[in-house]
Specification:
single chain
Length: 129
């Protein structure tokens, strides 16, 4: 489950960095390809993958983050945080409009806070020496 948003975020982010096109079109294309592959897999194995499709779609939101402020590591961390938030809250937040965007925003925000806290701690350690 944690690999699904990671795949979505990194592929969206990488294609956006590579082609510098419209980020919404890139995210939509990535999602459509994944949905097509999952649909073919579902027809062969008759399994339900609804939550994986939802999680993949939310992962593309994370991948839409600006390349000016984020690296692949930041996007990867944010997508793993997204998977954790989704696992904890998907039933409670089901009836709320914009839930996927909100969860993606929170995961990116936490990722940025962790990165900032890490850089502040590094600077403090350097200043102590």
């Amino acid at each position: 489950m944690y690999l699904v948003p990671l795949l979505a975020a990194v592929s969206t982010f990488a294609l956006y960095r590579r082609f510098q096109g419209n980020i919404v079109r890139i995210a939509t294309g990535v999602t459509l390809v994944f949905c097509l592959l999952v649909t073919v897999f579902m027809s062969v194995h008759s399994l339900a993958f609804d939550s994986l499709l939802t999680l993949f779609y939310a992962g593309t939101f994370v991948g839409m983050s600006t390349r000016k402020h984020f690296s692949y590591l930041d996007i990867s961390i944010a997508s793993l945080i997204l998977a954790g938030i989704y696992a904890l809250m998907y039933r409670e937040i089901d009836q709320l409009g914009g839930a996927l965007g909100f969860m993606s925003f929170c995961s990116v925000l936490v990722s940025m806070a962790v990165r900032k806290a890490h850089s502040v701690m590094q600077a403090a350690m350097v200043n102590q020496k």
